């Protein structure tokens, strides 16, 4: 029976993971830790809620000891920065916060950490493999903070595998998560009258349904295999296929022109996105999920196409 603490427990993914852990017979105790307190309607019976800021939590080791935590599910991260969010703030949460959590795990004698990494850790590069596997290099992008930070966290974890081997790791490199209530910078790409397409790129996406992400997190927290695993549904969808599913036409624009537009928009504080993030659409990492199925032992319930169809259905109901 595992005793689990979840960082980022009141976020989009955290809320679902906490609920999944609380419903599992293999979990004895669930502690949801986040900088924000959940609203009364979100609180679940039997779940303990703690206010924790991962960027300033000197008492985190004692909190872990007090609840006798043996497994930490680390989700806290700034995935969708706002217009006023600075790179310094993102680094403080994504990198320094992760270091504080891992250090606390080692200090408190936690036996396992489950980490939500991202396909972004591979980076957005023109020479990415057509299908990326876990043994491919983690390159990130120095000019794309989220991608750079995910790479840095994984480098930190690699170092810990040498210096603290007693802390077992399960690291999930997750594709684009879709769910009934998802609303982020990616789904915003599909809300315009026409779907943006950069000339010369198919911009393929791999999708995974949120319930599948929750299930792998629960399995990992309750004794599932250690290791590094891509998490995505089978298959991929190009921008043209996404536009067709949406019943919309595409707006095709040269990458250089989109770079200029982002530069102007960012300078005028109309968008948090910078010109360097053009690569986010040009060279998307397409995740191979073979290890997830064959080694971790989990096959996602929905393919990329099925996850997108379910998202569209939920969106229509909203």
Write structural notes for this entry.
The protein is of the alpha/beta class and 318 residues long. It has a domain at 2-178 and 207-233: Rossmann fold. The chain has helices at 12-22, 60-66, 87-108, 145-163, 210-221, 239-246, 255-267, 279-282, 290-296, 304-317, and strands at residues 2-7, 27-34, 47-51, 71-74, 112-118, 168-174, 176-178, 195-198, 207-209, 227-231, 250-253. The chain is globular, with a radius of gyration of 19 Å.
Looking at this protein, list some descriptive labels.
seven-stranded parallel beta sheet; 18% strand; alpha/beta; 11 strands; UDP-glucose 4-epimerase; NAD(P)-bd_dom_sf; Rossmann fold; Epimerase_deHydtase; Lipid_A_modif_metabolic_enz
Short description:
InterPro entries: Epimerase_deHydtase (IPR001509), Lipid_A_modif_metabolic_enz (IPR050177), NAD(P)-bd_dom_sf (IPR036291). This protein has 318 residues and is of the alpha/beta class. The protein is 37% helix and 18% strand.
CATH superfamily of the domain at 2-178 and 207-233: NAD(P)-binding Rossmann-like Domain
Strand content: 15-25%
Rg, nearest Å = 19 Å
Please provide the count of β strands. Answer: 11
Structural class of the secondary elements? alpha/beta
* CATH first level of the domain at 2-178 and 207-233: Alpha Beta
What does the largest sheet look like?
7 strands, parallel
- Give, in spatial order, the strands making up the sheet with the most strands: 3-2-1-4-5-6-10
Mean pLDDT: 94
CATH architecture of the domain at 2-178 and 207-233: 3-Layer(aba) Sandwich
Based on CA inertia axes, which overall geometry fits?
A: globular
Q: What distance lies between the first and last C-alpha atoms, to the nearest angstrom?
A: 38 Å
Helix percentage: 25-40%
Low-confidence stretches: none
Write down the secondary-structure element order.
EHEEHEHEHEEEEHEHEHHHH
What is the CATH T-level topology of the domain at 2-178 and 207-233?
Rossmann fold
Number of helical segments? 10
InterPro entries: Epimerase_deHydtase, Lipid_A_modif_metabolic_enz, NAD(P)-bd_dom_sf
Protein name: UDP-glucose 4-epimerase
Domain NAD-dependent epimerase/dehydratase: 4-232
